[in-house]
């Protein structure tokens, strides 16, 4: 499905942007450098496989769907210079190794592999470029559909509150920046806002990398959506006082039984939501479902990142410089688990491109039968 650029939701200074695009030279890919945000806005040109792998690893691009899209273009960049089987295998392995948790990475690489594997070498680069472009367009279309289904949930609450402000709590950044456009968790919010519904977002700051404070707050602000950044531990208090109508988060991997892996801290929000009767929704595109795993806690690999991310914090000084400072005593140990798993029983519903469904094996298999048919061999290969 082709989505023309003018359908882009996000505008920066009046110009429509996707988070990733083919550069006009036809030989490289542009991305927004997310490590600069929120204080600077800039883009990067990825011209090689190594550029793409570095962008994912260093989190210049991040968010499960955008990681997948970048990997897809990375494979194309590799095939541009050498379309041999050996280079295809090498590029696949290099890109797969960049980040372990978001399954969209492997999904996109498998899509690329399936598209090019049986093609003559002379055609591989062109075919790869086409599939990478389609993956991006499909992501936009999927997120629009997620938005429409999630919008109905927000509309229902707005009607119940007789037009009173609908308060959504979200964690990390599952927004425009984490996808090609729209976002997953934010698509229903943008649609509600654009429709004139009074919607307000509590954005968890999301230590240690502060994707909520730096990225979600930035993109909501750009679009004019009222929002409040809160320290990560605030959500439970707000829920106890009736200040959150619903939680919508994104996800990096949903298992066959509906367990949800997302940015560290999501599980605690789900527990608080359950204790306070607040609906807890997870927005996801179907490439985020991993039908080869069931028990998310036991089976999903959790990324552990550098302790520096916990030990330090970066920000803008009063005179406009970006500085990084240490926030822990010299010598203290740190732990930096990137993700956690929320068991399916704590999830009110999954907002997918095919509707809002239960977080359960039968509901997932019924909604995505073509994905649910995983052979035992391929499941074993994935686990190996
Ligand atoms: O480590 P990150 O910033 O890549 O983690 C991102 C998240 O956890 C998002 O919530 C998830 O990828 C869903 S993005 C639509």
Provide a descriptive summary of the structure in words:
- The protein has 384 residues and is of the alpha/beta class.
- It has two domains: 10-138, Four Helix Bundle (Hemerythrin (Met), subunit A) (Up-down Bundle); 152-383, Rossmann fold, CATH 3.40.50.10470.
- It has 14 helices and 18 strands.
- The protein has helices spanning 49-57, 64-81, 85-96, 104-116, 121-160, 187-194, 211-223, 235-240, 266-276, 296-299, 308-311, 361-367, 369-372, 376-383; strands spanning 11-12, 15-16, 20-22, 29-32, 43-46, 166-170, 199-204, 227-230, 246-249, 253-255, 260-263, 280-283, 289-290, 312-316, 322-326, 339-342, 349-352, 355-357.
- The strands form five sheets. A seven-stranded mixed β-sheet has the order 8-7-6-9-12-17-18, sandwiched between helices. It has a four-stranded mixed β-sheet with strand order 13-10-11-16, with helices on one face. Strands 3-4-5 form a three-stranded antiparallel β-sheet, with helices on one face.
- Helix 3 (85-96) runs antiparallel to helix 4.
- The model is unreliable at 1-6 (pLDDT under 50).
- 5-S-methyl-1-O-phosphono-5-thio-D-ribulose (MRU) binds next to helix 2 and strand 11.
Strand and helix map with partners:
Elements: E1 11-12, E2 15-16, E3 20-22, E4 29-32, E5 43-46, H1 49-57, H2 64-81, H3 85-96, H4 104-116, H5 121-160, E6 166-170, H6 187-194, E7 199-204, H7 211-223, E8 227-230, H8 235-240, E9 246-249, E10 253-255, E11 260-263, H9 266-276, E12 280-283, E13 289-290, H10 296-299, H11 308-311, E14 312-316, E15 322-326, E16 339-342, E17 349-352, E18 355-357, H12 361-367, H13 369-372, H14 376-383
Parallel strand pairs: 6-7, 6-9, 7-8, 9-12, 10-13, 12-17
Antiparallel strand pairs: 1-2, 3-4, 4-5, 10-11, 11-16, 14-15, 17-18
